[in-house]
Amino acid sequence: MTHHEHILTTRTLGTGEHALTVSAMGLGCMGMSEFYGTGDEQQGLDTIHRALDLGVSFLDTADMYGPFTNERLVGKAIADRRDEVQLATKFGNQRGEDGSRLGINGKPEYVRAACDASLQRLGVDHIDLYYQHRVDRTVPIEETVGAMAELVAAGKVRHLGLSEASAANIRKAHATHPITALQTEYSLFTRDLEDEILPTLRELGIGLVPYSPLGRGLLTGAITSGDSLEEGDSRRTAYFPRFHGEALQANLALVDAIRTVADRKGCTPGQLALAWVLAQGDDVVPIPGTKRVHYLEENVAAASVGLDAADLDELDRAVPRDAVAGARYGDMTSIDA
């Protein structure tokens, strides 16, 4: 017997007829298939089913995760529960079946082909939120979003999103077809979007979906050295500078400062970090990723950690905006600036 404990409230991304109501926190499914060590299909299915039981109905995947295997996993998990889910996937990071990276593709004909392929793998007749995963600098964003808008007209996609887009491109895209959400990295460790991007989203009425709200796991306190990651985990590579050498030591000191506040609040550092993201506004819906039920339950419990102005000020002092050591990616060229 499934226990539907739905303990999460909902939040709304976007405005007017382009608004999408989702669970206040989503589930990033990427790590179930790739990048963060080995995946286990049954473990992934169990985690997604538990998420739905807890009211985490906003599921995030992408065609490039696996590649192609994560969408199939999510599709399998929601096969008999589609009506409970707000399903988000992405296109644009083109990959081959062998996992090779073929670059960023925002060409209109690719948009259409990618969407059809995603629908087939997911086993659904529509995608609730379809994101351009990365901006293709060789194609005007109006052309890419124009093709995405055709998918909405065709009923294949309900709402449109962007990921890691600059403020200027968000404006151009939104003028072509209303954008419901921007997915970008945002956490106590990554706050650069507060300068220009977040004000732009608020001005236009676009929701924010922070990925890596736990700093790729750093903010949980579970990572104490590079050795605490599985072989094959991408965080062990130079692609993630914050996990290495002196940068890691500096960042773990910040996690200790967060832990001090968390202990006082009676929660874990990860829960405090998630509560901080949730406290940034009702138009913010973080999507912490996990492949384990235990961490999922811990993340969901963060929604009941209340932070007042004094708590937020204390966290600002504990983790000054520019205190984090290391770039968020070793190679930032795919990020639209």
From TrEMBL:
Q: What keywords appear on the UniProt entry?
A: Oxidoreductase
Give the protein name, as stated in the record. Answer: Aldo/keto reductase
Q: Which residues form the NADP-dependent oxidoreductase domain?
A: 25-318
A GO CC annotation given for this chain: cytoplasm
- Please give the organism: Nocardioides mesophilus
Gene3D superfamilies of this UniProt entry? Answer: NADP-dependent oxidoreductase domain (3.20.20.100)
Does Oxidoreductase appear among the keywords? yes
InterPro entries referenced in this protein's UniProt entry, alphabetically:
Aldo-Keto_reductase (IPR050791), NAD(P)_OxRdtase_dom_sf (IPR036812), NADP_OxRdtase_dom (IPR023210)
GO-annotated molecular function: oxidoreductase activity
